[in-house]
Every structure is written in structure tokens, then in C-alpha cells.
Write a structure and sequence with these properties.
Number of domains: 3
Strand content: 15-25%
Oligomer: single chain
Distance between the termini: 82 Å
Radius of gyration: 26 Å
Number of strands: 14
Order of helices and strands: EHEEHEHHHHHHHHHHHHHEEEEEEEEEE
Length: 447
């Protein structure tokens, strides 16, 4: 058997290798194919006539790959394309930020909510923080899923992996919900463990985003299953693309979005296997439409800017999530408030009032932030913290301050929650935040 190696441009991931190998192996006389997106080449083993470049390019033209002899030349840095893509992504991020801070996502559910309310709760989650975490994963993987299909395939066929991803979420959220109801807190992650999982997932998202931007140094990092296994998933006769998306959708149950944690807590409190399963399944069903829309946008877009815009969004969402989780872990990050907000000016220079020997902190909490978000207290004295919920969401309905006390202050819309503790004896600035680290504030302790 003879062999020939051609250079190829347009590859970016493990899925590209599978698609190229799958199509070239069909050519007459071809016995083996080994593609490498890292090296940008494909080695073809043949017995009779050497497969022509024209034929290979014709077969894979619609998939966006170009084959040629000789070494690949570096593609000029598309600065203008990156710049345009950045402004498009910036507009999307600003719209996302506006929706998150507008109070639109202040809808809450509780243990007495009817099951259809969890569909609405999931819908809101899908358009807010789930869009940043789970949606970011869907967006980064859409490009890879898309490369497994011909552009001539129907939209339904190309959306198949995203549909199966969401069906996996609905099915396994229900199954895990039932287990949650039966075994109690078996699947209830601590805030610290949840934050670490989010950071690890976000790091993977960051790498995928850099790959989508074509950053050469990250093209070689492509965690994947062996080709002998993944090629089976990529074979139409083996229900192409269905299995892995279903599994991935199922595993998102363990990604600690604030909305998801809220729903899991309510499912846990239901004390019923059936009710717990339905609560989780209805919530996942609510996220179906937003997440499918994200995948649809990535599938139908043929603009050369899509990959860059999607890559930028994935990177921003990943950095946003990492930064928020560092707040939860009480580690240095970029969200630490450098100065009090406008509603905190009355506390900027003065200590909080003392009533009956307790330092009184009064604060309003909403889905957009805390008012005030800065306090000054004396070291070593008792503190009474009164927090009034003015419309929080599933991600902001609890306040935590690891360096001040254990646990969280759970908030209930329209009511005032109270937490009493003793101020630290060590002067300094101590942070507090919601349990997803999305909004935060600080307490300065002085002698």
C-alpha cells in the first residue's frame, strides 16, 4: 500500500478529522485515512491510483476544507475581522447585561409553586445565567457538531445534536431529580465544590473559544475520545451525533447555575420522588427553547464572522463565570467593588448605627445589585444584618460572606431576612456576594 500526505486548511477540531476521514475513505482505492487538525494535514493510504486533489476538494468543498500539496502557509492575522466581530459580540454582551440588571429575571419559585411555574423559571434561566454557562458550552460545541454534517443537510438534521442535548437534559434532570428526592442531599453540592466545577468547565470553554478564534497555540489541545470510538458516533448508520450530546446534556445537571441550584433545593425539599422528578424535568424543559435558539444561531449562520463572534462570546462567558466563582470562593478577582455605589455614600465615611449594643446593617437586595453595597463597622462588636428582598432571582436569592460567617442568608421576596454575627477582630475589608458571585459588596472593619 502506498501513501500520500496533503496539507489541509479549515480544520479546527477533532470532529473535523472524523469528517475528513469519513468522506475520503469512501473514495475508490483508498484503504486508510489519518487526518490531523493539529498539523493541518491528512495522510491517505491507497493501493492503486493516487486520489487526486481535485476529487478530494470536490468531495469536501461544502464542508469548508481545502486540500493542497506542499506545506501550509500561515494565514494572515484577520485583524479587521476580529475587530468587527468584537463589536458584534460587545453589542450582544451589553444586551445580555441590560436584561440581567433590568429586574426582568426577578421571577421566583417556591415549594408551593405549581409545576408549570418551573417551566417559566427555566425559560428565564435559559435567557440569563444558563446562557452564560450551559449556553456557552452549546455555542462552543455547535461549530464542532456542525462539521459532522454537510451544509446540504436539512436544518432539522444539523440541529439534531442540539435537540438531543436538550432532550438529554430534560430526561436526565427528571431521573436525577427522582434520585434527589429519594436520597435526600446525595447530589446536593456545596457552594465551594460547585464553584470549583464551574471554574473547571469555564477553563475548557475558554480553550474552545480560543480554538474558535484560530489561536494556534491552542489548536493542539483537543481533549477527545479515541477515534475508534468517536467515529462510531459520527457514522450516520449509528445515529450520528446523538449519544454524546445526550450524555453531555445529562451532565449539565451538575453544573451549579443559581437557577439550577434553587430548583434542586426545592426538589429536595419536596420529599417526593415523583414531585422532585417533575420539578427538575419541567425546569429543564423551560431551558429547552433558549438553548436551542443559541444552537440554531450557530447552525444557520454562514457568515465568516460567526466563528469569531461565537469564540469571543464563549471566552467572555468563561471569564465572567470564573470571576464570579472566585468571588464565591472569597479569592481575589476583578469584581471586588473598589468604591461604594451611590446609595452607599452615607456609609462611606461613617460607622453604621449601634442599637442595643448591636451594629445595624440594613440593605436592600435585588437581581441587579445591593443597596447599599458598602458598610463600615467596628471590630469585635455584635452585628445585626437586615436584608430586604426587593426582587431577587434564582441566582441572587441568597447572600454569603465566607470570611464573616458560615452558610448563607436566604432571601424571600418582599420580606426582611436577618443574620446576627460578631464582627472580625482583624481590621480589613471583607466581601459578600450572592451565591453565584454575580453581585457583590464589601464591609470594612475598623478598630
Amino acid at each position: 500500500m502506498k501513501s500520500v500526505t496533503y496539507s489541509v486548511s479549515g480544520t479546527h477540531c477533532h470532529a473535523c478529522e472524523i469528517l475528513i476521514e469519513k468522506e475520503i475513505i469512501k473514495l475508490r482505492g483508498v484503504e486508510s485515512v489519518a487526518a490531523s487538525s493539529t498539523r493541518g494535514d491528512v495522510t491517505i493510504g491507497y493501493t492503486k491510483s493516487r486520489p487526486s486533489l481535485d476529487k478530494i476538494n470536490e468531495v469536501l468543498k461544502e464542508s469548508g476544507y481545502k486540500f493542497f500539496e506542499g506545506e501550509a502557509t500561515p494565514t494572515p492575522f484577520p485583524f479587521s475581522d476580529y475587530l468587527k466581530s468584537f463589536f458584534i459580540a460587545l453589542a450582544i454582551i451589553l444586551a445580555f447585561y441590560f436584561l440581567n440588571t433590568s429586574g426582568f429575571f426577578s421571577f421566583n419559585v417556591n415549594a408551593d409553586s405549581a409545576l408549570p411555574a418551573f417551566i417559566l423559571f427555566g425559560l428565564l434561566a435559559g435567557f440569563s445565567t444558563c446562557a452564560a454557562l450551559v449556553g456557552g458550552i452549546v455555542l462552543s460545541l455547535t461549530r464542532q457538531w456542525q462539521s459532522l454534517y454537510s451544509q446540504e443537510s436539512s436544518l432539522t438534521t444539523r440541529l439534531q445534536p442540539a435537540i438531543m442535548f436538550n432532550l438529554g437534559r430534560v430526561l436526565f434532570f427528571g431521573i436525577f431529580g427522582a434520585i434527589l428526592g429519594y436520597f435526600g442531599s446525595f447530589f446536593h453540592l456545596s457552594l465551594g465544590a460547585g464553584a470549583i466545577i464551574s471554574i473547571l468547565v469555564s477553563i475548557l470553554m475558554l480553550i474552545l473559544g480560543l480554538q474558535m478564534l484560530g489561536v494556534a497555540g491552542f489548536q493542539g489541545f483537543q481533549p477527545a475520545l479515541p477515534k475508534s470510538l468517536t467515529s462510531r458516533f459520527a457514522n450516520e448508520q449509528n445515529f450520528q451525533g446523538k449519544y454524546m450530546p445526550v450524555i453531555m446534556g445529562a451532565l449539565t445537571f451538575f453544573l451549579p447555575c443559581g437557577f439550577t441550584l434553587t430548583t434542586q433545593s426545592l426538589a429536595l425539599a419536596s420529599g417526593s420522588v415523583l414531585t422532585s422528578a417533575l420539578i427538575m424535568a419541567f425546569f429543564a424543559l423551560g431551558t429547552f427553547v433558549p438553548l436551542l435558539l443559541i444552537a440554531w444561531g450557530g447552525t444557520v449562520s454562514k457568515s465568516k464572522y460567526f466563528s469569531y463572534v461565537a469564540g469571543i462570546l464563549v471566552i467572555i462567558f468563561a471569564l465572567y463565570t470564573v470571576n464570579a466563582q472566585l468571588t464565591v470562593l472569597d479569592l481575589p478577582n476583578f469584581s471586588f467593588p473598589s468604591s461604594p455605589n451611590s446609595s452607599s455614600t452615607s456609609f462611606a465615611d461613617d460607622l453604621v448605627p449601634v442599637v442595643n449594643g448591636q451594629q445595624i446593617l440594613k440593605m436592600d437586595a435585588s437581581s441587579s445589585g445591593y443597596s447599599p453595597n458598602f458598610f463600615k463597622i467596628k471590630a469585635g462588636l455584635p452585628v445585626r444584618w437586615e436584608i430586604t428582598d426587593r426582587g431577587t432571582s434564582g441566582c441572587t436569592n441568597a447572600v454569603l460572606a465566607r470570611s464573616l460567617f458560615n452558610g448563607v442568608i436566604n432571601l424571600v421576596p418582599g420580606t426582611t431576612s436577618v443574620r446576627e454575627f460578631t464582627a472580625p477582630t482583624t481590621p480589613g475589608t471583607y466581601r459578600f456576594s450572592c451565591w453565584m458571585g454575580m453581585i457583590s459588596g464589601s464591609i470594612e472593619v475598623v478598630q
